[in-house]
Specification:
heterodimer, A: 365 residues, mainly alpha, MetI-like fold, 75% helix, flat, B: 259 residues, alpha/beta, Rossmann fold, 10 strands
């Protein structure tokens, strides 16, 4: 076979060149698609404003519907069935993504626009002692939240991590470990108020005082909520550590406890630390159990073992529910406390990401 | 440094399942012993039972005797951790510790056991072990970089360096080249030839040319059927096994008639 044969006869019969040209198809240019998108948004605004007053959700829905119908028809004509379905589904998925964002963005906007008013020096440096009406601050609540969360973490993190180590490294699916897994699953689902009532009942029987309220009671209640989260997460992370690493360590004559503490835990530490930070973020915003365990006082109390202790969520609740005169001052404090709480949770989330990046096993040459 | 291993009537179980039955074998010091046979015949299981790594798997246990230096590894009051310090192991897939640098990986056996070691001694041990594993020249400029950044073949030699750094008497290798390319395989085979001077080496391999190249004696494992225990069919000098085996099954396997 000569070279010319190869050139003129690449794939057999004459029709084959046509089949290759058919993979080139006309497409809707980005400009046309942008035009359809803008048109849909305009129609959305027009329809909504024509029928009633402005409403973001309604605009998104109408614009999305119009966009999907038009893009499907246009694409069907120009590009054919397959591309039309692709564009329709892409539009649908994007719409649902935007709809999922609506409540998130809306909450953030509301909290910021309502909460910024009291973000000032006084708000962070004073408590509510002796404050009637405007002024006052969240210093006592911030301190209370930090103390109670710190004690909760000190209780929950060791218990949670050690329980997970038992489940993964020692349990081997025996009866105790199966029971433990079952109860952890159940505990993950208990309503937070139940945890609060449990802590109250526990301390009532310990102290003999049925109305005993203190920071430590709140910490115990939050621990009941936090431990299962830490156990679950740590368990998942430990199971991700390849068995080969454990075997490599055993084969070097390293005992089991050193293998766990020096090979398994360091390998999983990034995930564990991230999970713990997110668990803290989860309990720091709990309101119901703290309302009945730690209570509310207007002044600073740094002793978790005696006297009531205010936390941020309870402070926010209290300001909103028990308004004095003028009521705006109380509502503003409630919103600002909520804003501070969100920022704290956000900082914890960022911290979790940084921790996981810092601890992650390093790769590269 | 190297020791003779006498295996006597060894049965190996996974729970109720008997995986290997009645192994009789004497492994000479300063030699390379290859174990060959079809998949699932119990070669790796047998290898893991030689340093009590078998029982790491839940429900797994052994019956019988493995005598090293007059001590039965499965006797009373024998600490499996102590056994593993004397009898090291290299695995099929390279598994350097991802949280450690190259030097730390070599020192893992020392560091993980909380032993204190002087900086100068540590440096010496790292160099000696890496030279022993033919890896020193490739990594000497980046000892503090992560071990996971090396190529597969380098990682496997790092694992060998890690194993010989704890100064074992015996090195067990479970298909050490099956995840490597021919050039890395050659490097490891050369290394096995050198290590033979100081260590007793037992190697499981699926590559019969490799067994013929590196080993002094060869053991052929086989199973009679699915669900039946594996057995040591024949154990003899490598030349004899490959040229003139006593058993028909061995000849069939070697010549590629099955397996």
């Amino acid at each position: 076979m000569s070279a010319t044969d190869l050139k003129t006869d690449p794939a057999g019969p004459a029709g084959s060149t046509d089949s290759y040209s058919s993979i080139k198809q006309p497409t809707l240019s980005p400009a046309v698609r942008l035009g359809i998108f803008i048109g849909a948004v305009v129609v959305g605004f027009a329809v909504v404003l024509g029928l009633s007053s402005y409403n973001t959700l309604a605009v998104i829905i109408v614009a999305a519907l119009v966009y999907m119908v038009v893009i499907y028809i246009a694409s069907r004509i120009v590009e054919g069935q397959r591309h039309a379905v692709d564009r329709l589904v892409t539009g649908m998925v994007t719409t649902f993504f935007l709809l999922a964002l609506v409540p998130l963005v809306s909450v953030a906007m509301t909290v910021i626009s309502e909460g910024y008013k009291r973000i000032d020096g006084e708000f962070f440096t004073s408590s509510m002692r002796g404050v009637i009406g405007a002024g006052g601050g969240i210093m006592h609540a911030l301190q209370g939240t930090l103390i109670i969360t710190l004690i909760t973490s000190l209780i929950s993190i060791p218990i949670g991590i050690f329980a997970a180590i038992y489940l993964v490294e020692y349990g081997n699916g025996n009866r105790i470990s199966r029971a433990l897994t079952f109860f952890v699953d159940v505990m993950t689902g208990i309503p937070s108020i139940v945890a609060g009532l449990f802590a109250v009942a526990l301390f009532a029987s310990l102290t003999g005082d049925a109305g005993f309220q203190a920071g430590i009671v709140g910490s115990i209640a939050l621990s009941v909520l936090m431990i299962p989260v830490v156990v679950r997460n740590t368990e998942e992370m430990l199971r991700l550590v390849p068995n080969e690493l454990r075997e490599a360590s055993y084969a070097l004559g390293v005992p089991k406890w050193l293998t766990i503490s020096k090979v398994v835990l360091p390998t999983a530490i990034a995930g564990i630390a991230t999970g713990v930070t997110l668990a803290i973020a989860r309990v720091i915003g709990e309101t119901a159990p703290l309302l009945i365990t730690a209570g509310y006082i207007p002044g600073v109390n740094l002793n978790p073992f005696s006297g009531q202790m205010t936390t941020l969520p309870v402070f926010s609740y209290n300001q909103y529910m028990n308004r004095g005169i003028p009521p705006e001052a109380y509502v503003e404090r409630a919103w600002s406390a909520a804003l501070v709480l969100i920022v704290v949770v956000m900082i914890l989330n960022v911290l979790a990401r940084m921790i996981s990046k810092y601890f992650a096993p390093k790769t590269g040459r | 440094m190297s020791k003779r291993i006498d295996v006597h009537d060894l049965d190996i179980y996974y729970g109720k399942f008997k995986a290997v039955q009645g192994v009789e074998m004497t492994i000479e010091p300063r030699s390379v012993t290859a174990l060959i046979g079809p998949s699932g015949c119990g070669k790796s299981t047998f290898l893991r039972s030689l340093n009590r790594m078998h029982e790491v798997i839940p429900g797994a246990y052994c019956e019988g005797e493995v005598m090293v230096d007059g001590v039965n590894l499965y006797g009373k009051n024998v600490d499996p951790v102590g056994v593993r310090r004397k009898i090291g192991m290299v695995f099929q897939r390279p598994n350097p510790f991802p949280t450690m640098s190259i030097a730390e990986n070599v020192l893992a056996g020392v560091k993980l056991n909380n032993q204190r070691i002087k900086k100068s001694d540590a440096d010496e041990l790292v160099e000696k072990s890496l030279r022993g594993a033919n890896l020193w020249n490739e990594v000497k400029d980046r000892l503090d970089k992560p071990g996971s950044g090396l190529s597969g073949g380098q990682q496997q030699r790092l694992c060998i360096a890690r194993t010989i750094a704890v100064k074992p008497d015996v090195v067990l290798m479970d298909e050490p080249c099956s995840a490597l390319d021919p050039i890395s395989t050659l490097a490891i085979e050369d290394l096995i030839e050198e290590l033979k001077a100081d260590y007793t080496i037992v190697i499981v391999t699926h590559n019969m040319q490799q067994a013929a190249r590196v080993s002094d004696k060869t053991g052929f494992f086989n199973i009679t059927g699915i669900g039946k225990p594996g057995q040591l069919v024949e154990y003899d000098a490598t030349e004899k096994i490959f040229n003139n085996p006593n058993e028909k099954a061995t000849e069939d396997y070697i010549s590629g008639r099955f397996g």
